[in-house]
Amino acid sequence: MPDREQIYIEYVDKVRRYVKGKIQNQQEVEDLVSSIFVKVYQNISSFDRKKASISTWIYTITRNTVIDYFKAHKVVCELPGILEYTEEGFEEILKKETLEELAEALEQLEQRKRDLIILHYYSGYTLKQTAEKMQMSYANAKIMHTKALRELKKLMAW
Question: Which of 50, 79, 89, 157 is the most exposed place for a label (fewest CB within 10 A)?
């Protein structure tokens, strides 16, 4: 079972950054971050490394908590009629498919592609920063990013 303190130290900034990107009110951001870690700690015994990585599991709890927040506050936004498959298309994948399916699809990607997707979308790094962290060229990161998104699209069968 992962150490609770280490989980908090490692993921609190990432979780906060994600929530801040979705919610403008700083007090509500802090409340949600606290709520997310309460859920993580309450459910840590159900975490299964065979099903997903700890980061994917925490991200799933984070995203679901934000979705619940919007449902409770009746925040509605309209999606455009035609969604393009672009870099921002990953957010559209998340909206269209369940997080369990995404987690399963991510687990099927080769490790470097999965790392790139997690660093870029979950950790909030630009592709250039992701390339530097992964010690590869920016051009290679762009190619790998495109391939990873295509594979996710196929794995999720939509």
Answer: 50
